[in-house]
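S2.1 Query sequence (Pyrroline-5-carboxylate reductase)
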Amino acid sequence: MEASELWVGFVGAGRMAGGLVRGLLQAGKVPASNILASAPSDKNLDAWRELGCRTTHCNLEVVHRSTLVFLATKPHILPGVLEEIRPAVGSHHIVVSLVAGVTIQTLQRLLPPWTKVLRIMPNLPCVVQAGAMVFSRGSNAGDEEAALLKSLLSSCGLCEEVPESYIDIHTGLSGSGVAYVYLFAEALAEGAVKMGMPGALASRIAAQTLLGAAKMLLETGEHPAKLRGDVCTPGGTTIYALHQLEKGALRATVMDAVEAATNRACDMAKD
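Output structure tokens follow.
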């Protein structure tokens, strides 16, 4: 399907949905005039209008006027939204949920039995088109729907299809993982401030250090341990610093954090 022929709707117009739309528009995937977003108030819709998208306060209008429908509401609101739009969902619709903790099984139960359902879990850097996303498909979504979604969302960052059981792990690794990285960046900068560097400069250097390290990981394909070893020289500054991090159990603590966030995501799906 050509981008100009695709009509995309968003039920919910929060920050994550807005980030995805910016990626679609910047990559020329879909014209702004083909995007329609709904929200209860104008609070979030003004930014969409500035991008050239159409807006409404009616969720049913989004479904009626779109082929690809993204569900981007808060989890506790979604059941009521699905009950509202269910009569309007046809066999031609593709429904993609961004809602945390809501399984494909639940979506399929609350929507008509023929609905093509996919579930995606993005992370915050999608708003700057540098996200990491995974998605899974329901029983009625085929290769065509999966390929379409991946083609569209690759404009917002890394996008991979995975078994649904990986989505909660992705939440612990990448969805919540962004916060772990921010905490590490903050600690890096504060260490430099302690040693006499101005805070603003230290924060910029810390951010660029993380960006450069991530870029090397992606572009070289090397294992992190290999790249870490490349930085160390016998008796040098880096091995002394790494010894302190190991004494602080950084590695085990981060692994515990991923486990805790993953388990919490699983618990949320059961609530």
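The two ends are 38 Å apart (CA to CA). Residues 75 and 140 are 23 Å apart (CA to CA).
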